[in-house]
Design a protein that fits this description.
- It is a single chain.
- The protein is α/β, with parallel strands linked by helices.
- It is 45% helix and 13% strand.
- The strands form two sheets. The chain has a five-stranded mixed sheet with strand order 4-3-5-6-7.
- The chain is elongated, with a radius of gyration of 20 Å.
- It binds zinc ion (ZN).
């Protein structure tokens, strides 16, 4: 792509570093911003900088939060004996949208993926195991996407919990293997949480 302006080229380059944004889309977005009043760009830049600067992660579940403990963990109406283990905040949002789940969450921050150099120590698995050892948690629902990385992560967590008194279940998936959790429709996802199955059964089924 040939640019008549170095300023334009830089802006397009930075925009194209975002996931899913190719050079053409980046150019379209940058030209769009250029046509907008200056305060639009200022508001966008300010919101992003402020987010990066001030964002917190919940001490308990590692969800993104404006406070030390997130609204979900702080809500006394939620059942703290059930914890749903998810990959990231998008999964929390997807499950919350179903209105079928009243327990807490644990956000891992990714999946074990040797290909991408992500090991168990890069995720919040240690704090999950400590939480279970504390004894409040009675059931853990593993709700990772049914990809190879998701299965590996589920199995690793299951092994770490060996000998601890906790029921481990996995969401009954009505969606095909490889579908990411956030793309499942709300009805299917809600039903799959209600109809969850013991994790042992899901290993035997494979
Ligand atoms: Zn929380």
């Amino acid at each position: 792509m040939e640019f008549s302006s170095k300023l334009l080229e830089n802006a397009v380059y930075e925009m194209s570093q975002l996931p899913g944004i190719g050079k053409r889309t980046a150019l379209r977005l940058v030209l769009h911003l250029l046509k907008q009043p200056e305060e639009r760009t200022e508001l966008l830049a300010h919101a992003l900088l402020k987010l990066k600067d001030e964002v917190n992660f919940c001490n308990n579940c590692h969800n993104i939060s404006d406070t030390e403990v997130c609204e979900i963990c702080a809500n006394p109406k939620r059942d703290e004996t059930i914890v749903c283990v998810v990959e990231d905040i998008r999964d929390v949002m997807a499950i919350e949208n179903t209105s079928q789940y009243n327990g807490l969450y644990h956000v891992l921050g990714g999946k074990i993926s040797p290909m991408e150099g992500v090991g168990p120590q890069d995720l919040t698995i240690g704090s999950l195991v400590r939480k279970v050892k504390d004894g409040t948690v009675k059931e853990l629902i593993l709700a990772l996407s049914s990809t190879m990385e998701g299965d590996t992560t589920n199995f690793y967590i299951y092994k770490q919990l060996d000998g601890l008194e906790v029921i481990t279940s996995t969401i009954a998936r009505g969606i095909s293997v490889g579908d990411e959790l956030e793309y499942a429709d709300e009805v299917t996802l809600g039903r799959s949480i209600i109809n969850r199955v013991p994790f042992e059964n899901s290993i035997k089924a494979n």
